[in-house]
Design brief:
It contains two helices and two strands, in the order H-E-E-H. Strands 1-2 form a two-stranded antiparallel ribbon.
């Protein structure tokens, strides 16, 4: 009985980590796409006053790049945690209780 409760806890924690990893990966893809738009110059607002004009990014590029680094770090952390939980789940499944 003890083994099954440990297995459920490990599995639910593993599922939560996998779900969080998917969310972080999706966010990272969006930030990378936004960075690419900004570098191409597609995400700028153009202002003109008389004969003068200026272009401005809606979001600072440095902020986007900083968030990308944070998301990549979190993704690596989640990968490590998932690997550790997977090993724990495998070890839990290999436990055989015998009552002699």
């Amino acid at each position: 009985m003890v083994v099954s409760s440990v297995k459920k806890t490990t599995t639910s924690k593993l599922d939560a980590l996998i779900k969080e990893r998917e969310i972080v990966a999706q966010r990272l893809e969006l930030y990378l796409a936004r960075e690419a738009e900004m570098l191409k110059g597609e995400a700028t607002q153009m202002y003109s006053l008389g004969t003068r004009s200026a272009q401005k990014h809606q979001t600072p590029l440095a902020m986007i790049q900083q968030q990308i680094e944070k998301l990549q770090t979190r993704l690596a952390e989640l990968d490590e945690q998932i690997a550790a939980e997977s090993c724990a789940a495998i070890k839990t499944r290999l436990v055989v209780i015998r009552d002699w």
